[in-house]
Amino acid sequence: MTNRLRSVFGCVILLDGFTNLGGDMPDDRLDRNFRTDLDQLAGVADRTLPALGDQIQLQLAAHNKFDGVTPPSHFPGVEAAFYGLNDVLKERLKRACTVIEATGEAVHDIANLYKRADGQ
Length: 120
Prior knowledge:
By secondary structure, the protein is mainly alpha-helical.
């Protein structure tokens, strides 16, 4: 399976190719070892998704540094807009972390279920 690196919002994410947006699976995938695919899927759940969550947590920590800081400014409207946007971004990042964690747990459970069904 070909690994591709993509940059998304400054985070490098390892995409392992489990999503096939083109419809049918390519013929060369039909001959692949099912165990290898499950091991790679488990790797996404156990390493890739947690690493993505860690990167988002770093971004969240950067936004948290602004909490309680009130720099002197002659533009209170701009300040209010900045802090309002910062709060929105923090909530979105928290939600993203929650979704990534839940997705990792689900993918891990799916890989284990298929391994048991396949006798691995």
